[in-house]
Structures are given as structure tokens and as C-alpha cells.
Amino acid sequence: MQEKLKLIPAIDRLLGEMYKDPAVAEWPRDLVVTALREAAAQARQRLRAGEDCDISVSALIAAARAWLRQASGRSLRKVVNATGVVLHTNLGRAPLSARAAAAVREVMEGYCTLEYDLATGQRGTRYAHVVGRICALTGAEDALVVNNNAAAVLLVLSALAKGREVIVSRGQLVEIGGSFRIPEVMQQGGAILVEVGTTNKTHLADFANAITANTAAVLKVHTSNYRIVGFTAQPDTAELVKLAHSRGIPVIEDLGSGTLVPLAAGGWSEPTVRESIAAGVDIVTFSGDKLLGAGQAGIIAGRRRYIEIMKKHPLLRALRMDKLSLAALEGTLIDYTVGDPLRDVPVQRMLRLTQDELAQKAAALKERLTPLQAYGWRVDVTEISAQAGGGALPAVDLPGWGVAVRPQGISAVALERQLRQWCVPIIARIQDDQVVFDVRCLTDEDAGLICQACLELAKGAGQ
Ligand SMILES: *Cc1c(COP(=O)(O)O)cnc(C)c1O
């Protein structure tokens, strides 16, 4: 082994060989050296582990080239979402509308009016680009935007309730993914949590009895990822507002996904932001990249006197939105104002596809996949269901359609893995030893990618 270790070519020699290919000159020299060192180190490691390893000049150069390719490859990449989950947090939540994507592109490629007032030639505010539309779409007096809804809740509590009590129903002490938990956010914001009621039932009187001179607010939280069903009760929002206002305190509502247009399925509906504002809620917070369908953002809408306090809070600077997300948000809000959101905003369109439309989409994908049958693969249209995702319509299974593929020569598990590692990764589900492609979130281009990948894998498996 010692002998073989000594036979690994010197880096200088490898470098000389590598630069015989003029294309290598496009890489910085330091990076090429690093790549060769990595290749040599790996060979050394394998030899030490007693493994067989090709240590020829050409093998080491090939390994260095692979390392360089990897170094220039992106990790954050497009994937095909064949899971049927429209607001898949791990897959980046909402795809942008054409208008929002164009707005992002324009702003990112040059300079923009982020904090510049064209009328006066003076400094402007980044919030001015979206506040008017948020107010028009929700009925709120004023609004503010931050990085995400978690930041919105933190800012609201920090600005309005630091060192004071906030009353929450025990049925709404939510934990959502990524460790956002109401009791902990409350603590971060410096507020004192006062739990009232029980897990299943909280009455107006529970809130009334808990209000003290040190109460800063009543907080309602959308139960985004669970339902309490059966023997249950929560006071009506308007009643709660009436009580809170009679005692001189505001009502805050964390709506989570918070839709701007009504959305219902499976006997449940998502609350609209306008309904909460109309019921008198003083401050509503919701996400930009859930049902709204924009990029990451946290929207705070409500009464001006509370928004004014938040505008002056030092946390706002730490939580502020960047120009790209802001452009995506403004573009999407325009879809809701002058466009048809049910047609133009992808998440709204996908969530509303009818059973007929989905069945047709599945039949079309099946048709395109029929060449797989020549390799002994089975291809069937199948009825499936999926969640809306993103804290929208929790516990509702949205019925849909997909195509189930039963491969030949490789297992469904292997097929799913290879699709996931394809040049454009395809994320699908496994069900009953088949790989299932839910068609709800697929574009025409996505369907083409699925066909291409499956066909190549079928050819490979058949050999
Ligand atoms: C999703 C959600 C949040 C967090 O929103 P992000 O925009 O992901 O930060 C907070 N509260 C509720 C109720 C939610 O559903």
C-alpha cells in the first residue's frame, strides 16, 4: 500500500497535464489546484482503506474535472413538483405569477425605485409600493410588510405587548413547522402568555375573566395544521372584538395562510383577510408565499395607530423585506387588483382545478407515457388526493388525479430515487409499489421532463 501511495502523481505533473486542455484555462488556477488536491486526497484515502483505486494521471484528472463541475453547479435548483401539494414548504411554496416573475426580473437586473420617490426626487419608503394595494384588497386602514409571517407576529408582539399580557385560547397554541411556536414567539416578543379555556372549548367569558390592567391584547391564531372537531367552541371574532374594545385593548389575529379571495374545500373554508378586518380585528398578519401566491413575506394589516408604532420599532429594520420579494409581492397584488387572480396566480389556479380538468391532465400525461409499455412498464391513470399545504385547508384531502407507473427491471423505490436525482429533479410519491405523478402542479414542460426521464430510465433498466 505504501508503495502504491508513493505512485500517486505529483500535483505539478497533474496540473501540467490538465492545462494541455485549453478549456481548463477558464477556471481560476487556485481552483484547479484545489480540485487536483481533492482528487489525490480521495485516492490516498481509498488506498489506505484497502480499496482498489485507479491512480493513473487520466483517472485523477477525470476526478478533478468532476469536482470542478460540482463546484460550479447550483444546489438551489428547479424541481418538478409531482406531489400534488400546491404549497409545499420544502419545495419553495408558491410559484410566482408571470407578472410577479417579470417584476422580479426587472428589479434584479438593474436599479429600481426601492426607496426613492420619483415625484420629489427624495428618499421614499419601500413600503409605499404595496401598502395602498394591501389596504384596498383587505379593507385595512394601513399596512406594513416584513420578511415572513413569523417575523410579522414577532414585530407585532414586540411593538404592542412587550412586558404585558396577551390572552390566547388553549385551542390555538399552535406549533407550525420550523419551530414557530406561539408560546415561544410570545416569549421572544417579550409578551406574557395568558392561556384561557381548554383544548376543545374556549368561551367569551374565559377571555373576559382574564383581562387585567396589564393586558396588552387578545391574540387569535389560525390552527393552520390541525383541526379540533367534535365538542368544540371558540367565540365569534366579532364578539371577541366587542369585548376587547369595551376594555380598551386590541385584537390581533395571526391568519397564517390568509387568503384574499374565498377558498373552500371538503366542507371547510379558509378565512379571508377582509372578513377579519371587517369583524373589527385591529391587526391581522399573514404570509406572502402561502395562499396569496407571492414570494416570502409577512403582511401586517390593520389600524393605523398600531401600524405607526411598528413603523418606529427598531426590529422593523432587522426584519425588512428585500427588493426581490417586494417586487414579487407587488406584482402578485396587481394580479389581484387588475387581473383575475383565479386565472393568473398559479396557486389559486391549481387549487381550483376541477376533477374533470385534473382527469384530463392525467389522461394526457398517461398518453405521453405510453412508450414505456414497450419496456414492460405499466402506466395507469389513478384517482389520488393530496393536501393543499402551507397551512391552508388543514386536514382536507383535495381529491385529484395522477398517473401511476409500475417499472420493470428496477424497483419503484429505485425509480423514485433516480427521478429525484435527475438533471431536473422530479419529486414524486410511491404508492403500492408504483411511482405516482400527481398532475395538479405540473406544467406542460414538467410533463415533458417526466416523460423524457422515465423513457431514459426504462431504456437503461431494460439493458
Ligand atoms: C405559516 C404560519 C406562520 C409562519 O409564516 P411564515 O410566512 O412561514 O413565516 C405563522 N403562523 C401561522 C398560523 C402560520 O400558518
Automatic annotation (TrEMBL):
It is found in: Cytoplasm. The modification N6-(pyridoxal phosphate)lysine is found at residue 290. Belongs to the SelA family. GO terms for molecular function: L-seryl-tRNA(Sec) selenium transferase activity. NCBIfam families: selA. It comes from Sporolituus thermophilus DSM 23256. It catalyses: L-seryl-tRNA(Sec) + selenophosphate + H(+) = L-selenocysteinyl-tRNA(Sec) + phosphate. This is L-seryl-tRNA(Sec) selenium transferase. Residues 5-44 form the L-seryl-tRNA selenium transferase N-terminal domain.
